[in-house]
Amino acid sequence: MAGSKTRSTYRCAECGWTTAKWVGRCGECQAWGSVAEAATTPATPSGRTTATPVTRPAVPIGRVSAEQAAHHGSGVPELDRVLGGGLVPGAAVLLAGEPGVGKSTLLLEVAARTAQRSQRTLYITGEESAAQVRLRADRTNAVHDELYLAAETDLGAVLTHIEETRPRMVVVDSVQTIGASGVEGVPGGVTQVKEVAQALIRVAKTRDITVVMIGHVTKDGAIAGPRVLEHLVDVVLHFEGDRDSRFRMLRAVKNRFGPVDEVGCFDIGPDGITTVEDPTGIFVERHHGRVPGTCVAVTMEGRRPLLAEVQALVTTSPAERPRRTTSGLDGSRLAMVLAVLQQHCGIRLHQHDVFASTVGGARLTDPGSDLAVAVALASATFVSPPPAGVVAMGEIGLSGELRRVRDLPQRLAEAARLGFAMAVVPADPGAAQGVRRGSSDRVIEGMRVVEAPDVATALRLLHLDRRTKHALEVVEAGSSESIV
Q1: Distance (Å, rounded) from C-alpha 353 to C-alpha 316?
Q2: Where are the domains of the chain?
Q3: Which DSSP state fits 38?
Q4: Phi (first) and psi of residue 233, to 5 degrees
């Protein structure tokens, strides 16, 4: 027989894309000069794979015990909420986020809470020294005898620490700093990250250890390293927040053991990280009186309703092209709301500068906040505050109609719980439970709920239409003309 042939492959150092011949530009990530020749491997003849011994025999699915995949609380309620009940033995969790957002602080708190339940925990740090982690542990009161700490950057040493300490939970900070000897590439590269992740996942599955890995992100917010890393792990979490705010949010992008539409809220402070079970107060400003240009929206973050205040400022523009500035809102969405207000409500702002923002660094991406933005803009235009204790929710269509929003009963219940007296919602008799068909005004849990078919009707119900503008002009002119 002729000797087995060898074939050369070329791999991108940025994303791991492979090709049979060299190219100057990666066909996957479009990076220039990142494709290099990989190690040659003997070509395997097709049809020559033989059967090998199995590790465990196949059994009927009814005989497989589900207790090994039961959730165990981590000691951090908001993290358990996102995970669907807690950590699962043998699971591999990847936590990613921007630098300085608090990933290490969060996992050090989780490791300390786990150690307090007499479950040995191993914290592997590859970015900091052991003394630096100890200083943070002293500040956050995370020192416990069952919490073991090791500063290692070699994969073999990490596996040895796991073998010697036999923990129930391992935290690796971070997966991009651990290198595997005998594997090509530098730590953080595609091949290295893949090998390190696969080795840690094998340990997690064979020993029923929960492994939590911290991952870096790119400038675009994506997880650094090969895309296969997200496929290998069981849970992918994103920790996000604004540098100017102490508020942090934890989202599940992938979760094999629970839902992916839950959100956890945290507060970063000098003493560490604490859970925020009722974050509404962060995004709503408590005014002493009625203020023009403000309106409260009820948005859904996963399964959790959150109230956020929208503020708007409208001024005459001295420039030929007026400014449109947003903070926490989508600029294109604001432009659409302005167009609808001009076309269907007669509010012309093409010669005015418009500034719109949210309170507390909240980011409103839910289309159900469109009506609150429109109310804030109309209130700022007419310098007339909306009624006290009002919330608005509804998606605005291009024809000016108000479309129903999801989870309306939960939104109304949250607004009523916080003491709001009035809610303006889209006119849909079946949108909420217990609504009498044909009703446009009802009371739910002590809160008056008013239905409006379009944005013009909603503004009229709140006295923020063109009649309000006419009334203000009459008052300013000192005329005794009656308002019709």
Answers
A1: 6
A2: 1-41, 72-277, 282-474
A3: -
A4: -80, 165
**Non-local CB neighbours of 87 within 8 Å, separated by 6+ positions:** 71, 72, 73, 74, 93, 114, 169, 210, 212
Q: 3 falls in which pLDDT band (50, 70, 90)?
A: very low
How many angstroms separate the Cα of 82 from the Cα of each of 88, 158, 252?
A: 13, 28, 6
> Residue range 369-374: average pLDDT?
96
Question: 389 pLDDT exceeds 50?
Answer: yes
Could you read off the pLDDT of 322-357 as tens digits, one per residue? 999 999 999 999 999 999 999 999 999 989 999 999
Give burial (CB, 10 Å; 0-12/13-18/19+) of 71: middle
Whether 104 has a binding-site annotation, put simply, is: yes
pLDDT digits (tens, 9 = 90+) for 223-272: 877 778 898 999 999 998 877 778 888 999 999 998 888 889 998 888 88
Residue 102 counted as an annotated binding residue: yes
Q: Which CATH class is domain 72-277?
A: alpha beta
Cα gap 462→221, rounded to integer Å: 40
pTM of the shown model: 0.77
Residue 97, annotated ligand binder?
yes
DSSP for 330-368 reads -HHHHHHHHHHHHHHH----TTEEEEEEESTT--B--GG
Q: Is the pLDDT of residue 466 over 60?
A: yes
Assess contact for 201 and 90: CB atoms under 8 A: no
Q: Is 98 annotated in some ligand binding site?
A: yes
Q: Looking at 15-157, which runs of residues are DSSP E strands?
A: 18-19, 35-37, 41-42, 92-97, 121-125, 147-151
SS3 248: strand
For residues 468 and 381, give the distance between their C-alpha atoms in angstroms, rounded to a whole number. 10
The pLDDT of residue 468 is: 56
Check the annotation: does 482 bind a ligand.
no
Architecture of domain 282-474: 2-Layer Sandwich (3.30)
- 183-192, 388-397, 439-448, 454-463 — which is least confidently predicted? 439-448
Q: Are 334 and 369 in contact (CB under 8 A)?
A: no
